[in-house]
């Protein structure tokens, strides 16, 4: 699904450049990517950092690979979709962070961020 992230980045370059919320950016790029991914499979959503669904990541999405309901499940693939986020030249990415996250002793948790 990397092509989806790349396509959204081409269509909305200003949303990608303005994705660093720590510097006044918005959810627009993340929302557009998640919405587009959900057109193919509604198990795509946002990632609750370190398992905290109240603290959604600004550059990572989740995919529920299990049979649990989406909201709150930890049965997720964790995918970084913005390389260089909050840097001078953010770009589209599709980097599986599931193993790295687990090796650091933490988890991802699926959240709809109140959108669905």
Report what the structure shows:
With 116 residues, this protein is of the alpha+beta class. It has one domain (2-111). Helices cover 28% and strands 27% of the residues. It is built from four helices and five strands, in the order H-H-H-E-E-E-E-H-E. The protein has helices spanning 2-11, 13-17, 28-38, 98-103, and strands spanning 44-48, 56-64, 76-83, 91-96, 109-111. Strands 4-3-2-1-5 form a five-stranded antiparallel β-sheet. Helix 1 (2-11) packs across helix 3 (28-38). The longest helix has 11 residues, at 28-38. The chain is globular and about 35 Å long. The two termini are 21 Å apart.
* Alpha-carbon distance between the two ends: 21 Å
Total discrete domains: 1
User: What is the percent of helical residues?
Assistant: 25-40%
Largest sheet: number of strands, sense, barrel closure: 5 strands, antiparallel
Strand content: 25-35%
Structural class given helices, strands, pairing?
A: alpha+beta
Order of helices and strands: HHHEEEEHE
| Widest β-sheet, arrangement of strands | 4-3-2-1-5
Unreliable stretches: none
Count the DSSP helices.
4
Number of strands: 5
Looking at the structure, what is the overall shape? globular
Average pLDDT confidence is 97
Rg, Å, rounded: 13 Å
């Amino acid at each position: 699904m990397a092509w989806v992230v790349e396509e959204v980045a081409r269509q909305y370059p200003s949303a990608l450049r303005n994705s660093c919320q720590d510097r006044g950016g918005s959810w627009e790029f993340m929302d557009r990517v998640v919405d587009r991914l959900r057109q193919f499979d509604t198990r795509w959503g946002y990632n609750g950092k370190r398992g905290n669904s109240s603290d959604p990541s600004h550059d990572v999405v989740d995919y529920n690979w299990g049979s649990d309901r989406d909201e709150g499940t930890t049965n997720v693939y964790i995918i970084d979709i913005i390389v260089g986020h909050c840097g001078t030249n953010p770009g589209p990415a599709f980097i599986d962070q599931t193993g790295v996250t687990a090796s650091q002793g933490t988890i991802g948790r699926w959240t709809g961020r109140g959108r669905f």
